[in-house]
Design brief:
Elements (H helix, E strand, L loop, with lengths): L2 E8 L3 H8 L2 H7 L6 E5 L10 E8 L2 E13 L3 E8 L4 E11 L2 E11 L3 H35 L1
Antiparallel strand pairs: 1-7, 2-3, 3-4, 4-5, 5-6, 6-7
């Protein structure tokens, strides 16, 4: 079961970083490369504990749908979303925010299991884990740009 972790320093208050990370509209903006859009559940604004969203996106040239639910939230320090339905066997994504100097450290922890048993494990080693790591890092970089721009 791959575990992807990433952290980034953002020169913006913790509340701004937390709210941007759970904002459906900002998620769409930060995942423009995969053309993600919310098509069901919460489709705009801030998500709260218990909320679900269904995303439609293009990954590996294939249009896919994935539904996730916010299963835990401690404002403005952490929230966790979990896949309800989608291409993975399962995933849990924890977003953590720590106040640091005049900014915030944003930490991602993404734990997933691929479908298809042994074939899924081979896909992880060949390309999927690298793809997911890059996806999470790129989204964090885009969130940083938005948060720091809002602070100007």
């Amino acid at each position: 079961m791959p575990i992807i972790t990433h952290e980034i320093y953002i020169h913006a208050p913790i509340r701004i970083c937390f709210d941007l990370a759970r904002n459906v509209d900002i998620h769409t903006e930060t995942t423009a490369k995969t053309k993600e859009r919310a098509i069901a559940g919460v489709t705009t604004g801030l998500m709260e504990e218990g909320d679900c969203v269904t995303w439609e996106a293009i990954h590996f040239g294939v249009k896919q749908k994935l539904t996730a639910r916010i299963i835990e939230m401690e404002k403005p320090y952490r929230f966790t979303d979990e896949m309800v339905k989608g291409a993975f066997h399962s995933f849990t994504h924890t977003h953590e925010f720590l106040k640091k100097d005049s900014g915030t450290i944003m930490k991602d922890r993404f734990v997933y299991r691929s479908p298809l048993g042994l074939f899924g494990k081979i896909a992880d080693k060949l390309f999927l884990e690298k793809y997911m790591r890059r996806f999470i890092i790129n989204r964090a970089i885009e969130l940083k740009k938005i948060a720091e721009y809002k602070e100007v």
